[in-house]
Amino acid sequence: VIPDAIILANAENRIEFLNPTAESLFGYSLLELQNKSLELIIPKAFQQQHNEKFKRAVSDPNSGYNRNIIAIEGLKKSQETFPVEVMLSRLIIKGKIYFAAVLRDISRRIIVEKKLIDQTAYLEKEANGSFVTVGKIIESGKASIHWAGDLDVFER
Fold first, then answer.
1. d(CA 33, CA 9)
2. CA 58, 63, 67, 68 torsion-angle sign
3. What is the pTM for the complete model shown?
4. Which of 21, 72, 109, 110 suits a disulfide with 5, CB 3.0-4.6 Å?
């Protein structure tokens, strides 16, 4: 089983293929989405922006819509939105333009990052300054915690 969802769309903004992980992630079968607009899996609030960027990407291979990893929201069949990380690639197959998207649901990662931020704030408050962080707590999806001074046992 491939852990990431994969969607292939043509230059007309229509879905040509999705793997089983994408079917599970969005709640649609390939038959339900094949030859349908990508707008079915994009929340309404982002559709206009997507369409503008997509048109630019079709006409300009240097538009920046290639091999970038972006965090956006996806739209499930149930109309539930969820955070998703997407890597896009512009492809030319037999003279036709396609876009491949590799998607990953980042809902769990966002929850963990928030818990780390909350826990660090709690520890900083409880430690009365003996616990400090250097730089960002969350950077590139990795947590970094740096200690200064004596380490104490904290009780809630």
1. 11
2. negative
3. 0.72
4. 21
Residues 6+ apart with CB under 8 A from 124: 131, 132, 133
**3-state SS, residue 26:** helix
The per-residue pLDDT for range 81-137, each reduced to its tens digit, is 999 999 999 999 999 999 999 999 999 988 898 898 888 888 877 776 554 444 444
Alpha-carbon gap, residue 64 to 94, rounded angstroms: 23
Whole-angstrom Cα distance, residue 11 to residue 18? 16
**Which of these, 25, 30, 23, lies nearest to 107 by C-alpha position?**
25
Q: How far is 106 from 129, CA to CA, in rounded Å? A: 33
- The Cα 90–Cα 104 span in angstroms is 18
Alpha-carbon torsion (58, 63, 68, 74), positive or negative: negative
Using DSSP, state whether 44 is helix, strand or coil.
Answer: helix
In angstroms, the Cα distances linking 97 to 15, 31, 40 are 13, 22, 20
